[in-house]
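Worked example 2:
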Amino acid sequence: MSIELRSQGFLPGSRIPKLYTEGGKDVSPPLHWNDAPEETKEYALVCDDPDAPSAEPWVYWVLYNIPANVHELPEGLPDAAELESPSGARQGRNSWKSGQTVGYRGPAPPKGHGLHHYHFRLYALDAALKFDGKTPDRDALLKAMKGHILAEGELIGTYQR
């Protein structure tokens, strides 16, 4: 089953506006979705860049424990590990080793590196994820979700400097 994931900030396959990038205000884009299975217990979201000049895709955002009754994320979520809204949602570690390492960090491809593709992937899960007080990165989240994914949706935006 597939979830339709969209943004009011940019169209699928189009350029991500500067507002949502490191060169702009670096705020998370608004997202909304539908067509999730009724059995969904919660959602998780990952945004990464497989075009990054690194061994693994560069991770820009890890968000999990999004309640099943939530079907949109507003623009500009705070960079806190635990969010007040949506209530109970938590953010994991991105790929930065210093500065803001939890929450959304906007596209920041190396200058002159060409067009990069940013994959926002939303997962509908049949169980609540637990990390025992640890803040997971993308790999830990994907491992915890294994066997619990009911459906997923993807939105791809592009950016280059």
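Helices lie at 138-145. The chain has a mean pLDDT of 96.
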